[in-house]
Description:
Layout (H helix, E strand, L loop, with lengths): L2 H5 L5 H8 L12 E2 L7 E2 L3 E12 L4 E4 L9 E8 L2
Antiparallel strand pairs: 1-2, 3-4, 3-5
Amino acid sequence: xxxxxxxNLGMTVGDLRAALRxxxxxxxxxxxxxxxxxxxxxxxxxxxxxxxGAVAWSDYCSSPAVDEAGTAEDATAAVILExxx
Length: 85
């Protein structure tokens, strides 16, 4: 596995389950991230779906990225939270 990817994997499904355990089932789920603008606005679009996929290190964006083509040699299985565009 790519060393950059190894350092940037984040939480596991077990960590997520533990974090959600005490929350009510009817809370909406959003994905917060930096919009990338000058003020670093944090936006939070709603999560539309949860799928199993794969991520691989992207030198282009210096971050893990979804391996949509399924061709990355160093891809690792991951849960993908998809947000509305």
